[in-house]
Amino acid sequence: MEKILIKDAHIVNEGSILRGDILIHNGVIEEIAESISAKSGDVHIFDAEGQYLLPGVIDDQVHFREPGLTHKANIATESRAAVAGGITSFIEMPNTNPQTTTVEKLEEKFEIASKTSAANYSFMFGGTNDNLDEILKVDKKSVAGLKLFLGSSTGNMLVDNEAVLEKIFKSTDMVISTHCEDEETIRENLAIYKERYGDDIPMNLHPIIRSEEACYISSSRAIELAKKTGARLHVFHLSTGKETALFDNSIPLAEKKITAEVCIHHLWFSDADYDEKGSRIKWNPAVKTAQDRDMLFQALLDDKIDVIATDHAPHTIEEKDNVYTKAPSGGPLVQHALPAMLEFYHQGKISLEKIVEKMCHNPAILFQVEKRGYIRKGYKADLVLVDLNAPWTVNKDNILYKCGWSPFEGTTFKSRITHTFVNGRLAYKNFKVYDELFGERLTFDR
């Protein structure tokens, strides 16, 4: 592989911004300096022209729908959209069809990704009430972690047997990532509004049905169990301000046993948007109040929340355009997550360095991803070049998701991702994803 020399970039990395050059050889960062001279004719020189160079984003929660739900999405289409959004590595969830709850099914997904993924990839292994034997077979060095649905599950993936749950927590030292919503609370709330409205419940009641109480009950129970068993717990997609008080910011991330994530939609939207967006912003957990949104953002800045992710979960527009009880929850986000966070930078809400910490460095620390998530000598050259002053508007002509829609349609972002490098190879440039695939299976330093 030829060498690539990226010249004159503002390099955003490890809490600082340095203007300089990066030399890449065989997909690995070989040198970082204020100025690097090309020493031979086999170096391809790429002039960044002072644009901002970030580590590739690591998205720790996506649903790419393969196998079994590929009318909505697949690894090929969604990984291309991810690369266009500056996401160079993803961790995909186990609630596909069939579910990823055996080692055999897990390896089948790795095989699909090895042939179709434009980005680097790993998968969560799914826990159920009766697959502890399979959980114990998982190689923690080659799999991202364990996913448990403590609410809002599909198939048989709701883990609601408390004895089994405690046994799982005690039996693995993998990161256990959880979806926390209390099903009993949700069922009671849903029954009230279904009696009043039938199936056509107003969409703005979604955060009342999937309430703050439902989230807090489940999150606090999971944290209590993690403290009791010593398990390594990561709580996905916080949606309430109340939950943020459950998390700690007094120790470095690498030393935390209990961590949290927030998703783009819970930072961007509020319940005031349901009247306009309807089911397009129906997620589980629900988008809640503006106060919740503000508290989540503050907890992110205060390091009580450690990671920003997408929970990318596409459905067809025909599926989303159903009445409340039949419209599925979830939406596509990987292509627009980083531009959305850069919009917050323009608004003065967060620094570029903090965005990189939460989207690149911290997922690598939390999951112990090997040699990714930073711009460092000897690390894989997963890199994203951003023009902070190149406005563009999200529309159907530039959306790359297989489902063909976005909750951000009509939004104009000030920043544009111009180039994405995956393992040192140019995978995306100005709205074009190249056909050649450079994604690799993630490995973990455990």
Largest sheet: 9 strands, mixed
Low-confidence stretches: none
Q: In the CATH hierarchy, what is the architecture of the domain at 57-367 at level 2? A: Alpha-Beta Barrel
CATH class of the domain at 57-367: Alpha Beta
Give the helix proportion (percent range).
25-40%
CATH fold descriptor of the domain at 57-367: TIM Barrel
Tell me, briefly, the overall form: globular
Secondary-structure-derived class: alpha/beta
> What is the distance, rounded to the nearest whole angstrom, between the alpha carbons of the first and last residues?
29 Å
Count helical runs. Answer: 13
Tally of DSSP β-strands: 19
CATH H-level homologous superfamily name of the domain at 57-367: Metal-dependent hydrolases
Rg estimate, integer Å: 21 Å
Average pLDDT metric: 96
User: Strand percentage, roughly?
Assistant: 15-25%
Protein name: Dihydroorotase
InterPro entries: Amidohydro-rel (IPR006680), DHOase/Allantoinase_Hydrolase (IPR050138), Dihydroorotase_CS (IPR002195), Metal-dep_hydrolase_composite (IPR011059), Metal_Hydrolase (IPR032466)
Function: Catalyzes the reversible cyclization of carbamoyl aspartate to dihydroorotate.
Keywords: Hydrolase, Metal-binding
